[in-house]
Design brief:
By secondary structure, the chain is an alpha+beta fold. The chain has one helix and five strands; from the N terminus they run αβββββ. It has one helix at about 5-25; strands at about 30-35, 45, 60-65, 65-75, 75-85. Strands 1-2-5-4-3 form a five-stranded mixed sheet, with helices on one face. β3 and β4 (about 65-75) form a beta hairpin. It is globular, with a radius of gyration of 14 Å. It starts with a helix and ends with a strand.
């Protein structure tokens, strides 16, 4: 069974997410949600309705009439935030 490999990947993602959360908190950013296991690296959604939160610069990920989602790679994590359109 691949269970130990899967668990090892989740543990590694948890460690990466924790490291990233600490760095984001040091920048004064609020964490809205953390997703593990769905992507090859952790996905962290921050609550920051402005273009460059805490000095992060990202590219547009999704656009809809109400909001634009930005994303960037940071400390082995994918960090995302939404800005009103």
């Amino acid at each position: 069974m691949n269970r130990p490999t899967c668990n090892g990947r989740l543990v590694a993602q948890m460690e990466d997410a924790l490291r990233c959360i600490i760095k984001l908190a040091q920048r004064g950013l609020a964490i809205a949600r953390v997703e593990l296991g769905t992507l090859p690296r952790p996905r962290i959604i921050i609550d920051a309705p402005y273009l460059e939160p805490g000095g992060l610069k990202g590219g547009m990920l999704r656009i809809n009439p109400e909001k634009i989602t930005y994303a960037t790679d940071y400390e082995h994590c994918q960090v995302e935030w939404e800005v009103p359109a």
